[in-house]
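To: structure subgroup
Subject: Chain for Friday's discussion

All,

I'm putting the inputs and outputs inline so they're searchable in the archive.
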Amino acid sequence: MPMPQPPQNWPQNERDESYDAKNLRDSNESEEQSKQTRGPTMMHSGWGKYGENLHIELNEHGQVTESEGNRMSSKHGVLARNDILASLNYKDWRLVPIMYKDRIWAHIKENTNAADDMKRILMMSFGSK
């Protein structure tokens, strides 16, 4: 089956170079203005609401309950990127020295009601942050 031909009134191989350059320049400027970034974290005020400690509860599957799970996950992301608590030179969480992991765990315990038996569950997610 042959390709259909464009209508006769369509321009054939005609370009207005000044028009193309102007549109390209305008589109680049508008992209720069409309590009949105995520911005800095706003989770530095405290772990729980109003700067209190975060209350953690686990469900029957060993997961942090939804009420505080999102906040805990966000805090884990902030901690994983904190070069004061742990070096950022490791690409694999399993290769991070225990010393750094203990610092992170101490920070979690200081700001939550996490018990020692929650350590494995709460620290597991750092490998994916």
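Points worth raising on Friday:
The mean pLDDT is 76.
The radius of gyration is 26 Å.

D.
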